[in-house]
Predict the structure.
Amino acid sequence: MNIKGKVSYSSPSNIAIVKYWGKEPGDQIPMNSSLSMTLNQCRSFTTIAWTIVENLVPSLEVWFEGVRNPEIETKTKKWLEKITDFYPWLANTALRVETRNNFPHSAGIASSASGMSALALCLSAIDNHVRQKESGDVFLQSNTARLGSGSASRSVTGPWVLWGETPLFRGSSHEYAVKVTDVHPRFAQLHDTIIIVDKEPKSISSRAGHDLMDGHPWREGRIKQVDKNMTLLLQALKEGDWKAFAEVTENEALSLHALMFASQGGMMLWKGNTVEWIHYLRQQREQTGVPMAFTLDAGANIHLLYPMQAREQVENILQQSPVSHHGFIYDGTGTGPEKISDVYEEY
Ligand code: PMV
């Protein structure tokens, strides 16, 4: 019997509070555990048209924002090879992937997290048809997403998600991410305004960045620091302690980039305006007492996190800033991917 279908998902990006930076030997095994907030607005929209025919030679086409993209196609092929053990039917499947993001490329928003998680969700939906299952396994979805991009493992669910084995969290694993549920209502809904400091694609990939942690002189110290920050963050989330949350958030962002500065070759993703913005935001916080905390991913752009009630004040602070930028993206806490459509037929 041959089957074919078409499935579409939208999946969000996420912003790590405790950062994943560096790997252990193996396939996408993180050096340390990480914890992120799933975003709501910044998403990838992915459709897979699929055909499974016995003895079919597998094939793949990837279209990104309306144009066939050989670079993403090559990466996706490698990823599919890795996950064929989980989905053996991939060996006889023709896939045509169409994907787009609703946020600018290289905006300091992890497009690999939203893109790979959307793909993983689509494949899980196909697997449900093939094996006639009611629903997909969220751990398998996370695990397959992880094999494409580490941070993608955390985008399959929300709002607060932990990836990487740590004695601090029961049930945590290197292979998949788990939801953190012991969260105070104060952290149920935060705003995240992304300040676009730089529009250019970043100079070094995060893959190359992770590799710089191999033999990094601060590696052991970093692992200890994560234990401390993860302890503080889990406690802050549980107790609704904004001050402790803000301290960990900024310490992690600055430490991530300090690790880059101190690595072989001196990786530097900040632009001058990144520094100007950080000074401005801290000075405004000092003067006004408005609760807000900045963080950065592997890029120059700034994510500014703040509670709902601070929205008007933060907007004023942002609008009045003398520091230049290329716009703001307004996002906030999200709950995870959404299925858009899923049809199939036997023939
Ligand atoms: O998932 P990757 O390989 O793109 O790495 C993500 C690394 C950071 O965004 C800097 C941190 C994180 O935990 O998301």
The mean pLDDT is 96. The radius of gyration is 20 Å.
